[in-house]
Amino acid sequence: MSARTTPVVDAGLIALLRADLTAADFTLDGVAERLGPVASAALHREQALPALLATDGAQDACGVLIRLFTLGRPVPTRALASALPTLGLDGARALGLVAGGGAGEPAEPADGWGSATCDLRPYADDAHEWWVASDLSEVSTGQALPEDHVLGIGGASTTLASWTIRRPARRALDLGVGSGVQALHLSSHCDSIVATDISERALAFAAFTAALAGVDLDLRQGDLLEPVAGESFSLVVSNPPFVITPRTDDVPLYEYRDGGRAGDAIVRALVRQVGSVLEPGGVAQFLGNWEVPAGRTWRDVWSDWLDEQARDGVALDAWVVQRDSQDPAEYAELWSRDGGSLPGSPEHSRMYAAWLADFASRGVETVGFGVVTLQRPETDRATWRSLDEAPGAVAAPMGPAVDAGLRARTWLAEHSDDEVLAVAWSCAPDVTEERHGRPGADDPSVILVRQGGGLRRVVRAGTVLAAYLGVADGTLTARAALDAIAGLLGLDEGEVRAEIVPQLRDLVADGLLQ
C-alpha cells in the first residue's frame, strides 16, 4: 500500500483498534512513561533519535506502536501482530494504517516488516483520551513534505485549543479541520459540529480521527465559509492556513498552511466574513498572521480591518492579542525551513529570496502573530475593541480567562461609568503587589500590580490606584472608596474618579478586579 493513502473508516475495525491502543497504554501518559523524560522532551522538540534508541528492538506493545506510528519506522510483523492482537495485521492493513507484512515480503526478519502509512499518536484533554491520525511527519520520513500534507498535532493547534472558550454550545464550526484536533475538543461541550476543509485529504484524516474517538462530525469540503453560507453557529474555531506565502513557483503551496491568497488576505477575509455565520452572542476564535507596513503599527492594521468589517458585514466585538512579531527575514527563515528544505541549499535560498521580495513589494516591516476572538453582540449596542500585546507566558489553558474577559468586556460596554463606580469590586486572588524604592526612602518610587493568571498583566499603579486596590475587598463601592481616598489625600473627588475609572475598566476587563 502506498504511503500516500488515507486511513479507511470501518466502524467494526476501528472499535478493535481502539481496544488494542487502550490495552497497550498507547496514551499520552503511557508514551511518556515508556520513553522517559529525556526522550519525550526531545521528541516534543522534533528530535527523534533518543526515542529511536529507547524503542530499538522493542517487543512491548507500547514501544512497538511508538516506533511504528510516531517515529515512522518499520517493525517486525510478529511484534506488530502482538501489539495489535484484536485488530490483527489484516485489520491494520484494511484500515490503511500499515503496509507490508504480507506473503512474499522480504524474509528479514522471518515474518517481514510492517510500515506505517500515517502518523497515529495519542492526544488528550483533562477528561478524554484520544488519538489523532495525520500524514507522517518530516521527522519520520526524512524528506520534504508533499504539498497536500495533512499536519498532525502542532504548536498552533495546541495554542488554539488552549485559548478556546469551553462554554456549552448548540452548534459549532471547525473551519479548516485538518486532522481533527479542534473538533475533538469541541465534542466535549458542543451539541453538533460542522467541520470544513478545502483539502479532501484532510477531511479523510479528520473522519478517521473522529471515528476513532466516537465523535460525530458533519464534514464538508470547500473554501472558507462557502460550505456553511446561510447557516449560524454558537462557536466558530479556526486554525486557518494563515502563513503568508509568495505567489511564485519558487515556494511550494502547502495546503495546511497556505490558503492560496496573497499576503494576509485569508485572515483579513475571515475577519470580514465570519460575522455572517455567528448567531447573536456567538463567538469566533482563530489564529492569524498580519502584515504591518513601514510607518504603521499592528493596531493600525487591525483598526482598519475592524472598520471594514463593521462597514461591509456584521459589526463584532474584537479582542486581538498579538503574541509575537518577526521581521521579514525571520519570517522567511521560519517558513522556508518548515517544509523540510535545508538552510543553505539552492531550494531554501530560492524560497528565502522569494519571501523577502514578496514582503518588499508591499513595504512590509514586520509580521504579527496572535489569537483573535470575535463576538457578535446579543443586543443592539456599540461594539468594543481590545487590541493587546502579550509576548510572554500566559495562563494554560487560557480559555477560562478569555471567557471571563469576554463577559467582563461585554458588561463594561453595557454599563456607564457611574454603574462601574457603584460596584464593590474585589482584587482577584491571583493579584499581588510589588513596591520598589531607593534604599532608605520612606515611600516607594514604583508600585507594580501583577496578575498571576490570565494574560499575566503588570500594571504600574499610582498612589490613588494603589490605595484603592489596597481596600478593594468587596466591601465598599468603588465610588465610596475613591471618595474616602480623595478626602485623605486632600484631592478633588471628581478629579480622582475621572482619573481612576478608565483604569478600573482596564483592570475589570482583564480580571484583576472582579
Helix content: 25-40%
How big a fraction of the residues is strand? Answer: 15-25%
Oligomer: single chain
The secondary structure category is alpha/beta
Mean pLDDT: 93
Instruction: Note the main sheet.
Output: 8 strands, mixed
The shape, in one word, is: globular
Number of helices: 20
In order across it, which strands form the biggest sheet?
Answer: 8-7-6-9-10-12-11-13
How large, in whole angstroms, is the Cα Rg? 26 Å
Model regions low in confidence, pLDDT < 50 over at least 5 residues:
102-109
Q: Give the termini separation.
A: 59 Å
Number of strands: 16
Count of the domains: 3
Task: Quickly list its features.
single chain, 514 residues, alpha/beta, three-stranded antiparallel β-sheet, N-methyltransferase activity, nucleic acid binding, protein methyltransferase activity, methyltransferase, DNA_methylase_N6_adenine_CS
Question: How would you portray this structure in words?
Answer:
Keywords: Methyltransferase, S-adenosyl-L-methionine, Transferase. Residues 23-103 form the DUF7059 domain. One of its GO terms (molecular function) is S-adenosylmethionine-dependent methyltransferase activity. The protein contains 20 helices and 16 strands. The chain folds into three domains: 11-117, no CATH class; 149-171 and 228-413, no CATH class; 417-509, no CATH class. It has helices spanning 11-23, 28-35, 37-44, 49-55, 61-70, 77-83, 88-94, 138-141, 155-163, 181-186, 200-213, 265-273, 298-312, 328-338, 346-361, 399-413, 417-421, 463-471, 478-489, 493-509; strands spanning 75-76, 98-100, 113-116, 119-124, 129-134, 169-175, 190-197, 218-221, 233-238, 278-293, 317-326, 364-375, 385-389, 431-436, 446-451, 458-460. It is globular, with a radius of gyration of 26 Å. An eight-stranded mixed β-sheet has the order 8-7-6-9-10-12-11-13, sandwiched between helices. With 514 residues, it is α/β, with parallel strands linked by helices.
